[in-house]
Amino acid sequence: MQVNKITGKAYHDATKHSYLSVQIDPNYVDSSTQPSSFKFYPKFYRRISLDFLNNSIHSFLWLTSAITLEKTYKNTVDKLRVNPSAGALYPTEIYVQIRGIQGIVDGIYHIEVENNCLVLIYELIDDGLEGYILPNNRIIGFIFLISCVYYRSSWKYKDRSIRYCWLDSGHHLGAIAASAFLHDRDIQLVFDFDKLALNADLGFENKEFITACAISGNVQDKKVRRLRLKVPFVCGTDYFEQNQFIEEAYKETALQKSCQQEIKHPQLSFDKDRFSQAVWNRRSIRRFEKQFISQELYFSIFQEIRQAIPTESFESIEIYAVVHRVEGIKAGLYKGTHLVKEGNFSEKTGYLCVNQAIASYGAVTWFFVSNYTNYQTAMQIAGFLGQRLYLASNYWGIHCSGIGAYYDDETQEFLETDKDVLYAMAIGI
Ligand SMILES: Cc1cc2nc3c(=O)[nH]c(=O)nc-3n(C[C@H](O)[C@H](O)[C@H](O)COP(=O)(O)O)c2cc1C
C-alpha cells in the first residue's frame, strides 16, 4: 500500500477495517504455510537452562514469556503462553541484558521460549545496551528488549499486523511487569530510544525490530558505550516475505518522540499467590455464558487498569466501557465512569467487532482510544493495559479476551469520539 504523507496517524488510517474491507479480504490463509513462531540461535551459543522452581532470578525471567498450555489442534501443537497474541502468532521475542547478577555472566541473552533457556548472544566488557537507551547511566540488573519478528503476523494480517505487533508487544511488557511484581522487582518502561541503531547492531536486518524496553535494576551515574561488535543475523522465522508498509510504519514511528510524564509506580494490591495463579492460568475466553458480574468486581477491575503506568515516555489512553451485564449498573456506553448514553448495545458491539459473539455476550466490551503523539508508543500502552485487564479479570474469576478486529470508523462514530480506537476487549462470564 502506498502512503504519501506519512505520520503515525496515516498508518492507523491505512489499516482501518470496514464492513466492506473485511468482506473483500477476510484474511483466510493456508495454515500449513505458517512461518515458525520460535526463534533459535545456533547450537554453539552458550545456554543456561532456567531452573524456575529453585532460582528466583530464573523464575523472574522465565515467567515473562513462559509456555503455559499446549493444545493439539489438527495434528499441530499450539503452545500458548503467559502473553496472549493476536491469532496466536506470537511475533514478539525478548532479549535481556544481565549485569552484576551473581552466577550469571554479564551479557545479552535471548530468551529461548520453547526450551526454557537463556542463550548468551553477546558478552559485555565495557559496553552495553545502556548506550542506546540511557546514555549517561549503567544498570545493575536487567534491561529487557522486546522485538517483533513481523512476518509471523503479517503472513496472515498483512498491513494491519503492524497494529497487532505493537499490541502484542504491549501485552508482553505487561507480562514482564507482572513477573516483576511477583518477584518484588520494580520495573520502568522505556519507549523513546535509539531503536534503529540497536536493530542494526543486534543484527536484525529488516526482519525483526525493537519496539520497547523495560528496566529493572539499580541505575548508576556512569556512561556505557554502545556494543563494540555486531551480533550476527539469525532469522526468527523459517522463511520470510517482505512487507514495505510495515517496515515504513515501524521506522517512521520509531523516530517520533512520545509525550512525557513524571514516572509513577502502580500500587498493586493483589495477593501474590492468587496473582501468580492468574498469570499461570491466564487465557482468552472463546464464548461467554451471558451472565452478569457484580458491580464490586467491575469497579475493582476498572481500578486496577487505571493504575499508574511506570514510564516517562507516555501516551494517554481514554477508556470507554460498554456495559451489558453488570449488576446494579445501567446498561450503556460509559466514558470512564461517566454515562454517555444509556441502552442495550450488546448486539451493536458484536457487530462493530466484526460480528464476533465475544463482543456481544460478555458483561462489558471495552474500547481504548487516544489522540497520541507517537502511535507506536500509544499502541503498546493500549496492549499493556490489555494485559492488566486480562490479569485483573482472571484474578477475580472473570474471563477476558483481546479484540483486534473491529470496524474502525463505525466504532469511532458509536463512541462519539474523533480520537483513534486502538484496541477493544471483552470481559464477562
Ligand atoms: C492484540 C490481540 C488481538 C486479539 N484479537 C482477537 C479477536 O479479534 N478475536 C478473538 O477471538 N481473540 C482475539 N485475541 C485473542 C487471541 O486469539 C489469543 O490471545 C490467542 O489465541 C492465544 O490464546 P490465549 O490468550 O488463551 O493464550 C486477541 C489477542 C490479542 C493479544
UniProtKB/TrEMBL annotation:
It comes from the Bacteria. One of its GO terms (molecular function) is oxidoreductase activity. Residues 281-428 form the Nitroreductase domain. SUPFAM superfamilies: FMN-dependent nitroreductase-like (SSF55469). CDD domains: McbC_SagB-like_oxidoreductase. InterPro entries: Nitroreductase, Nitroreductase-like. It holds the Pfam family Nitroreductase. PANTHER family: NITROREDUCTASE FAMILY PROTEIN. This is SagB/ThcOx family dehydrogenase. The lineage of its organism: Bacteria, Bacillati, Cyanobacteriota, Cyanophyceae, Nostocales.
